[in-house]
Amino acid sequence: MSYASVDEAIKAWADRHSLALHTTWAGREIRNAYVSSKAGECFQIWIDPPVNGRIVVRADCFEGRHENEAPQEWDTAATALQATLDTVFATVLGWMAPSERLSA
Fold it and tell me: In terms of pTM, does the model score above 0.85?
C-alpha cells in the first residue's frame, strides 16, 4: 500500500492549514499531523493508505478534555480526500472550542 496516488492532495491540505505533515514513523510510511489548542490540548489526524480507492481518516484527542473518547473515523473515496480532510480539520477545531488553534 502506497500513498503515492494521494500524496499531492494530502500535502495541499496540510499546506493550506499550515500543518506539519509526518511521513514516517518507526521505519514505516505514515501520514499524520498534530493540531494543538491555546488551552494546551493536542489532537492527531491520521490518514491510512488507500485501499481499493478508499481511505480511512481518523482524528483523536490524546491530551485534553476529549482524550477518553474514541477516535472519530471517516471512510472516503480517494477522489473526495481533500474535502474529507477539510471536514476532519473543522471537526478538530470544533473540539477545541471555546479555545482556538495554537498558531502553527
Answer: yes
Q: Which of 23, 26, 33, 20 is nearest to 3 (CA)?
A: 23
Q: Which of 20-24, 48-52, 69-73, 78-82 has the lowest mean pLDDT?
A: 69-73
Q: For the segment 35-46, what is each residue's pLDDT rounded down to a tens digit?
A: 999 999 999 999
DSSP string, the chain: --STTTHHHHHHHHHHTTPPPEEEETTEEEEEEEEEBTTS-EEEEEEPPPBTTEEEEEEEEEESTTTTSPPEEEEEEGGGHHHHHHHHHHHHHHHHTTS-BPP-
Distance of alpha carbon 98 from alpha carbon 74, whole angstroms? 24
Q: Where are the domains of the chain?
A: 7-96
